[in-house]
Amino acid sequence: MLKIENVSKYYEYGKNKKMILEDININFKDKGMVFILGMSGSGKSTLLNIIAGNLKNDEGRVLYEGKDIFQYNDSWLDSYRNQVVGYIYQDYNLIEYMNVYDNVRIGLSNNDKEYVDTLLKQLDIYDKRNITVDKLSGGEKQRVAIARSLVNDPRILLCDEPTGALDEDNGIMVMDILKKISKNRLVIVVSHDKNLANRYSDRIINIHDGKIDDKEGMDNDNSLEVIDKSKFIKKKISTRIIRKLAFLHVRENKGRTIMTVLALSLGIISMLLVLSLSSNFNKELNELENDIVGVFPVTINNYEYMEDNDWDKGYDDDKIYIKNNDKYKNEITDEYVSYIEGLGIDKTINYNYGDRLYFISDGKKFIDNSYIKMIPSREYIDNNYKVIAGSGIVNEWNEVLLKIDSNNMISSQLGEYLGIYDKSDGNGIGIDYDSIIGKKIRVVDNNNLYTKNGSYYYINSDIDKMYNDSYIEVEIVGIIQEDDDNIGGDYIYYDKELYDKIRNINRSSDIVISQVNSNNNVLGIEGDKNATLSYIGGGNTPVGIEIYVDSLYDKKELIEALDKFNKNHDKIIYEDMMASSIEIVRNFIGIISIVLIIFSVVAIVVSLIMIGIITSIRVLERKKEIGILRGIGISKRNIRGIFNYENGLISLMSSLIGILCLMGLVAPVNRIVYTTTKLENMLVVDYKIILVVVIINMIIVRLAGSIPSRRASKLDITKCIYNR
Description:
By secondary structure, this protein is an alpha+beta fold. Strands 15, 16, 17, 18, 19, 22 and 23 form a seven-stranded mixed β-sheet that branches. Strands 6-7-8-3-9-10 form a six-stranded mixed β-sheet, with helices on both faces. Helix 10 crosses helix 23, helix 20 packs parallel to helix 23 and helix 22 runs antiparallel to helix 23. The radius of gyration is 47 Å and the shape is rod-shaped. It starts with a strand and ends with a helix.
């Protein structure tokens, strides 16, 4: 069954070579007790570890059932250590923080709990099964070690000075147990006690300076049982046992676990705060974008502009230069209008053709044009205003809205125009919404606005007649207020459909037809014919354009498109009233993003380093435990699994603490943020973010611990066990 064939083992120290075992040849029977006797340093323990598969020989072969055990892969060797051989050490090599039952069961490759109980009863330690082994006597510990070595019913039992740490009585008791075991399996004992060997051995092999007598090694008994190889089936250690081992170690080292969890939870709290605040800042910034960008348009007008002085050219400080006072005349063309309309940007365009609408209240008063504004779109009202009374949405062309300021006020002048205020009433008079909702206003077209006298047209002086003859009437259907008071002031908002309707009527009015057919100015004033046509509502090309967009991204795309047009055509100057504000917002977003990214990166790096260091420390402290586990057949993968499970437990506990701390920080953080920025509820618990952080934390911990845990799985078994 087992044969040692020409085995040698040596260690190299630079150019020197120290021979530990030299050309060892031994045949073993399938049962019986074999003693290998030798002085300390003779190589007997090295030979035992080679037989166990813990240490690879440099020359020769270790044959089990005719096959060299070191020709197989790590998985096969793990199963060999776990099922073929059992190992008993001089100093027990038990895991001190585990109880008797768990120490025995740790290497069990099946779930036969009854067999474990039977072993404990046979070795008279069943009543101590729930006691941690650090509370046992030496003899009891050795019996636990024997039970562990027998738990998988191995064919070979290897004993390294099994009585060396015991008193005489306990030593005899252990040897009696081993002798009984040797009746149905091979028991190999290494010792320096000749009396013990003479009393218990079936065969004695002496080893001196790494050599044995050839006659002692050879056993020509051919009655060895041939073991069916099919009986040796590779089995895996239960992951439940691995998880329990990890849990027990975490529990055993409470102090370090708590410190690690608290340290890691700081990183998690930082990440939760960063992501939660970032998320809510982004929401706030999105609202700010809509409030600012959606309210103020990019405007293009047929104005005259002063030419730039090109300060970037680099003028000398000791000289005087003459300013460039040249003016540039903007001119919107049909080509420019077509270009803007063809842009693939989500936008709303309002055109100003140089004319205006004339509103007369039921008090027979013209409403000053400064109080009248056309809304960009009906969605514009929905996105930027709240309804105070009535309807907040203009559904028809003949419906208008009254915008009041953030203090629910309108100017006294607009109040007079609408007939809801008289100066004699004084200030501070409250006006019911109902007295405003439903109020009618008439819109005057050209034929009612202008009257002809000779060759020229004049504004009709009879306002009563204008009011009575005007058939287009609009109604105030709602009172609205800005979500954020960006524009300020108070206005009457009308719909673009009303503007288009009046324009269509005015284009066929008497004054427009007269101006089209005349080379003179029909208003009797000096001025360009086309400019006059635009003023009275007969123009075809706009003199002003307002372009509204809903986001900074669309604003950037629009500006780039307008600049692109100017590169290939005569320059048309545009004005972006919110350019500076947009730049501030963009810089603010950038700064916040950079700060949050730095916090996140720092938290991640700190967590990685900390877990890596702590896992490395755990590996160094548990080298002997790792060697013991590997020696009883725990695979490299299982060793990695132990550390990964431990790190996983630490990760979960730190995540839980981080979540609880975040919940506790919500109120104070929101108070601080509000005090400094006047922004409300910037920190809100978002369970999606929590889930993401927990997953990220587990991944980070797994990655950080992977290198030390992989290194732990590759440690040399004998160096770990003997602390070399």
